[in-house]
Amino acid sequence: MDLVYRLDKVSYSYGASKALDEVSFSVSRGGSLAILGSNGSGKSTLLKIMNGLIFPSAGTIEFAGATLDESGLTGGLLRCFRERVGFVFSEPDVQLFCPTVFDELAFGPLQLELSEKEVKERVHELLDMLGISALSERPPYTLSTGEKKKVAIASVLSTNPDVLLMDEPTNGLDPRTQVWLFELLRELKTLEKTCVMATHDLSLAEDLADRAIVLDETHGKAADGAISDVLRDRDMLLKANIIHEHSHRHGHVVHSHTHSPFASHDEHLPFLKER
Ligand SMILES: Nc1ncnc2c1ncn2[C@@H]1O[C@H](COP(=O)(O)OP(=O)(O)OP(=O)(O)O)[C@@H](O)[C@H]1O
Ligand SMILES: [Mg+2]
Q1: pTM of the complete model
Q2: Closest residue by Cα to residue 37 from 246, 202, 149, 211
Q3: Scanning 77, 99, 242, 246, which has its CA 20 to 30 A from the CA of 62?
């Protein structure tokens, strides 16, 4: 099997605070992996490691057989890695830095040394596909969160990476744009792209991923398997705080119907009633 990533007992700490504890798994080419876990379980940290932004405190990570560490991810490997791997951050503000949307989408293709004509064509195709041509000359910081997210996704797609790492891809998107993203990801899957997404959206995970790993609240791996098996394991999902007591299933999907947080919390927060 053609492995894109292989992680072996990867741990990571921010100073004294542990974020990942001996997490091992692998991702094969064309695979689609969902990373599930409660807030603070380590999903974003794991994606940053897979994107070579930070390196494991212990354990190893390999990309296409090459070790990603401070000394390894330089020169030729770094260039090849950056060309092949695209990362959509959960906060689009972190990602956008050019004066206009057009420049943002042209930035990656220009690095690939395409001609000016090819770059323009590619940018216009992306703007068209995303239905954001009208935003082309706008500075990204003036856009709404969802518009920024679309531009961030488009900028990642602009270099045609074959591995896509996405942190909470549907966050901040309206229902129609979520469906659009969903269709796009489905299409990318048919093109044999490898997708890894961290998400709290179990329906998205069920529909798009073929595998899932679950991080628990001790930052270790609580499950790793076919998405349908992982989503069926109600006890494990409850324990890892991915669903809660009021959740139930429709078919294979576990839906969580949260009761209003204020129903119980306002008893403990009397100042909320002070007006
Ligand atoms: N820059 C940082 N400095 C210190 N601690 C951090 C930093 N970033 C994350 N952490 C801690 O590491 C742990 C894992 O955080 P991470 O952001 O990876 O979680 P997550 O699973 O992505 O959560 P969420 O669902 O809220 O996005 C948390 O305990 C968090 O507080
Ligand atoms: Mg996160």
Answers
A1: 0.89
A2: 202
A3: 242
